[in-house]
Design goal:
Structural class: mainly alpha
Helix content: 55-70%
Number of helices: 19
Distance between the termini: 34 Å
Number of domains: 3
Strand content: under 5%
Largest sheet: none
Mean pLDDT: 82
Low-confidence stretches: 29-57
């Protein structure tokens, strides 16, 4: 796929500017639709008082930052809490102290934050975030550190925000897997006809994210048919393959990602064909 995109040579500067203009119009349209939804969501959530559980009360970070008064007095800080509260990190009991440090047992602001509040911000600085995320996501961080992008980041002393890190693709706190359009936007920052730095990369990366969606669909289909339950060994193999794919994705080596994705797709389609033949 990557070689085909390179061979097509359709990444002229004029075409790129046209694509960007069309994309921006699309984003504006979606944004206006989003605003209407957001207004309705606002009236539902704004007047809903957030209450900390008895377990959270023991954590002074959560108990303090969940104060509804911050909606007015410190919207940015309260947004951080809301993002966390809605995230997989909250479900997994990963709290402020796991990333920032501090003392969650103290109800005194200065003691909780420490003498230098900048120490709480250092672990989530752009050049340090992969180290912080890597405390839990060890294999992903290990593979990211093998990538050319990480080498570029370290070579520039962490000063280049054009070089992707964990938060570039997954956002922070309330993380997610990027959609095809999102990943294309991210890659376009560096890879475009103006820079002449592999302008085929954004489209190829978006294509690979779509392929990921397809193999997720095939997997869900087989689960719905009871294949995974009836064949635990096949289920284990697929889980291992998906784990391997996750590791390869974090190297950001697109050709390797395509190869691994194709392998998993072939396995799933073969099993689906066997299922269809029986039915």
């Amino acid at each position: 796929m990557l070689e085909k995109l390179k061979a097509q040579k359709r990444y002229s500067k004029d075409r790129w500017y046209q694509m960007r203009t069309a994309h921006e119009l699309k984003r504006k349209f979606l944004s206006s639709s989003f605003i209407i939804t957001a207004i309705a969501f606002f009236f539902v959530t704004f007047f809903t008082v957030t209450t900390a559980s008895s377990e959270d009360v023991a954590n002074s970070c959560i108990h303090c930052h969940s104060n509804p008064a911050f909606r007015i007095t410190n919207k940015k800080l309260y947004k951080y809490f809301r993002d966390w509260d809605l995230s997989i990190h909250a479900l997994e009991k990963v709290t402020c102290v796991d990333c920032h440090g501090g003392n969650p047992k103290s109800t005194d602001k200065k003691k909780a934050h420490g003498e230098d509040i900048q120490q709480l911000l250092t672990p989530v600085k752009y050049d340090r975030i992969s180290v912080t995320c890597g405390k839990c996501h060890e294999e992903n961080a290990k593979n990211y550190k093998k990538s050319k992008h990480y080498m570029t980041l370290t070579a520039k002393g962490g000063s280049s925000r054009l070089t992707p890190t964990c938060v570039t693709c997954h956002s922070s706190i309330n993380t997610s897997i990027p959609k095809p359009d999102d990943i294309a936007d991210i890659c376009t920052s560096c890879h475009n006809p103006v820079t002449e730095n592999h302008p085929e990369v954004p489209e190829f990366a978006g294509y690979l994210i779509e392929r990921l969606s397809f193999i997720n669909y095939y997997t869900r289909y087989l689960i719905s048919k009871g294949v995974m339950e009836k064949d635990p060994q096949f289920s284990k193999t697929i889980n291992e393959e998906f784990s391997g794919l996750s590791q390869v994705w974090h190297t950001l080596e697109l050709e390797r990602i395509e190869e691994k994705t194709r392998q998993i797709r072939t396995m799933l389609l073969k099993r689906r064909k066997e299922l269809d033949d029986v039915e």
